[in-house]
Design goal:
The chain is an all-beta fold. The chain has one domain: Distorted Sandwich (Beta-galactosidase, Chain A, domain 5). It has one helix and 27 strands. The strands form seven sheets. A nine-stranded antiparallel sheet has the order 10-11-12-13-27-23-22-17-20, with no helix packed on it. It is globular.
Amino acid sequence: MSVLPSGEQWTIRAGAYAGTVVSVGGGLRGLAYGDRQVLVGYGETEAAHAGIGQHLIPWPNRITDGKYTFQGAEQQLPLSEAARSNAIHGLTRWANWERVDDGLDESLVEVAYRLHGQPGYPHQLDLTLTYRLDGDTGLTVTASATNVGASAAPYGYGTHPYLTVGRQIDECELEFRAEQWLEVTPDRMTPVGLKPVAGSDFDFATARRIGALDIDNAFTGLPANWVVTLTDPDSGDRAVLSGDTRWMQLYTGSAIGRVGLAVEPMTCPPDSFVTGEDLVVLEPGDQHSTTFRVSV
């Protein structure tokens, strides 16, 4: 029997919601509400592409040149975004995670992975992802990391779901609040500096159509328990993602034909291993958790 590209498949259900968690990357292969998709998914016989449903651990986004210094030690990560000479989206997206709950609750899946030290990241972390569906409130995902090594470890978390309402996002309305957006270089996506959102092309404090606008930027100055809403103005269908992180990335999904809007909760910005900005430092035995939610 052949192995599926995304590994083992575990279905979660509650009310009108249904989704599929996979062992490769501990990712989410799709989420539906009734007969419509809330998150862009991919087929059972496909591998994840364009980051769909993946978790970005132990750093989200990019580290320029894959180089950083932590506690006096210089590190070089593999350049997983070779075209731009960057290290991108962490080390666990293609690892095989194990299911660790008892499987008795069809609304719950919990998966775990031990990240061992390796070139560029000589640290040991125990990682857990908990998916829980509720028929009224939708999907809640909690990501936790525990430092099980003997020394402090730099850490950041991100994830890469794409909201969808079943049509091109150009025709959809977007609403969210943030104070600042991060400008990056167009060639390598290297951070340049923060700019105010108010009055910019990225000001969606009042819901409006996305149109042809390209977004692939991080945002900060977010409200507590921030919310991003994508709406079909004709049907009124919505897809909503909320999070508790200090940062989030929006990406208008050119890699998937603009059929979904990536809303990526991030605990830290790009290059945080280099700058230290909002970087979590896990001392031995420390744990860090963050939660995001998806609903209609």
